[in-house]
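Name: Lytic polysaccharide monooxygenase
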Amino acid sequence: MARLKTFLPLVLSAFVVLAQAKITQDDFTGVGHILVLNSSNWKTAKPEQKVGCLDNDGRVIKEKSLDECGTFVRLNDYPYTLSSKEGNCTFSDERTVPNTDSYYGKRDHAWTCNATYSAIIYDELYTINGFNYPLLCWGDIACFYDAKKIPDDDEKVPLWQFRWGSQQMDITPGHVMLQLMWSKTGDYPKRTDSESIPGPRVQLKPNMQQPLLQGQKARS
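Structure predicted for Lytic polysaccharide monooxygenase:
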């Protein structure tokens, strides 16, 4: 029994390492839903923290079934962006509501998918090799998002980038920090000459610090 007690932690540690090694850029491809997690730690984020999903317009909803979630397609060639039946998805549409409560995010606009916007490479979301699950990041290795609240039934809540700095180190006061997770439902036809989807150069390491993947740090 003593040997078993010693052996089990080693097995569990090995399992965690293997679980992390499962996620690569290829896990964020094709067609799927985007789940919303109530999580402020990428190391411990898991599907059980799901509090909703994104609808086809790009807003957070409290789904009763995955059928109510938006269906998104990730292009497998340039610019590697997401779209729904409503159109291309972006944080750059200035017609969406700004995050006026945020000290550093006052000029940030909510994520949206619409047919009037032409997506560019800077609209790309991506995952990181080594995650336990296909969590979605954006910009300069930022893997967290900002919303006013977790939606109640029939509510549609805007989703913003999460920014921080010396005047606001944490999530916007009164708001909630969220993470996004890809839930693949099918494949998207590949071009025969398409290259591998690019991802960030960063690879997860055992002693990697939390702030590296926390969010966009604003200049004071």
